[in-house]
Design goal:
heterodimer, A: mainly alpha, 6 helices, B: about 180 residues, mainly alpha, 10 helices, about 0% strand, globular
């Protein structure tokens, strides 16, 4: 039962990603071509509301539903890992038209070739685990 | 009913995505999809090869449940909430897609040239998708997050690393879109 709320949030997430066509390769293509406002509207409005909400949570020191203090972990310091890692992900995002969330939504849509991208992304994550100590961070 | 069946605008999608992120925060969690890939590696036994995969993955089950929900959501939206599967593109985009070899841009959510039967019957088609996946998996873990973890969650918390990561996403995405894709398709 304790997982039910996450299942519901996931279902809403999947429906939104599909209905707003965020899972479409074309929407990512036109975003990187600067030929449509749609994806900038999605990310921009999510960010604007997210930013406002997080500042409110911090300002009022709000507690989580289970009564604990809400801790928003700061990201580790660094430049290289973010710019290089981000760059590599950006190549893959534009190439496949999908980031990790949409991959799973597309699976639910019944697009079986997506399994190849998912397998690749699991393997890519594994590769990072093997190489991480040799990479600049 | 038309409102449900038609594509949903950005000003519906963006705020609901923000709401999902905020709810996850007040549930004591955080919004990030790519970390599930690490969890999947850990469950599959990758801990034998790298300590990066030796962590309490059981604490991440909630996120895998979220992923399961996303799969179900995709199924529901596709089967019960959509009756027109075409993607409405503007003329400029259609023209540029034609030029790089996409024949019927927007005839479905994904181009047949990459995801159709023909693509899957070629070795090149398999390599394209698997290699694209490797870039996603390697890049997100190296950068410590993807669109949800950095562009939405991280920037909402005003994290400089997330801003750097998002700039990286766009340098990579723009380079692929404008200079590499025309040769790959």
């Amino acid at each position: 039962m304790k997982f039910l709320k996450f299942l519901v949030l996931g279902i809403i997430f999947g429906i939104i990603m599909s209905k707003a066509e965020i899972i479409s390769w074309y929407r990512i293509y036109e975003m990187f071509s600067f030929e449509s406002f749609h994806m900038y509207g999605v990310i921009g409005s999510a960010l604007a509301l997210g930013l406002l909400s997080v500042q409110i949570i911090k300002f009022f020191n709000l507690k989580s539903f289970d009564g604990n203090k809400i801790i928003l972990n700061p990201k580790d310091k660094g430049i290289a890992r973010y710019i290089i890692g981000g760059f590599i992900f950006g190549l893959g995002w534009s190439m496949t038209g999908a980031c990790p969330g949409p991959l799973f939504v597309l699976l639910g849509k019944g697009v079986w070739p997506i399994m190849l991208i998912i397998l690749g992304s699991v393997f890519g994550t594994f590769l990072y685990g093997l190489l991480k100590d040799k990479l600049p961070h | 009913m038309e409102l449900i069946y038609n594509p949903w605008p950005w000003y519906i999608a963006g705020p609901i995505i923000a709401l999902i992120m905020v709810l996850l925060i007040v549930f004591g969690k955080s919004f990030g999809m790519s970390s599930n890939l690490r969890t999947i590696c850990a469950i599959a036994g990758a801990g034998k090869y790298s300590d990066f995969f030796r962590f309490e993955w059981k604490n991440q089950i909630w996120n895998l449940v979220l992923v399961l929900g996303a799969v179900i959501g995709g199924f529901i939206a596709h089967n019960y909430m959509t009756n027109d599967y075409t993607i409405n593109l503007n003329q400029t985009t259609i023209k540029s897609l034609n030029e790089i070899g996409i024949k019927n841009p927007g005839s479905s959510y994904l181009p047949d040239e990459l995801f159709g039967i023909e693509a899957l019957n070629s070795l090149y088609g398999w390599i394209y998708l698997i290699f694209g996946g490797i870039l996603i998996g390697f890049g997100t873990r190296y950068a410590g997050g993807c669109t949800s973890g950095h562009a939405i969650s991280g920037l909402s918390n005003m994290q400089l690393p997330s801003l750097i990561a998002v700039i990286g996403f766009f340098i990579g995405g723009l380079l692929m879109n404008h200079f590499i894709l025309p040769f790959l398709l």
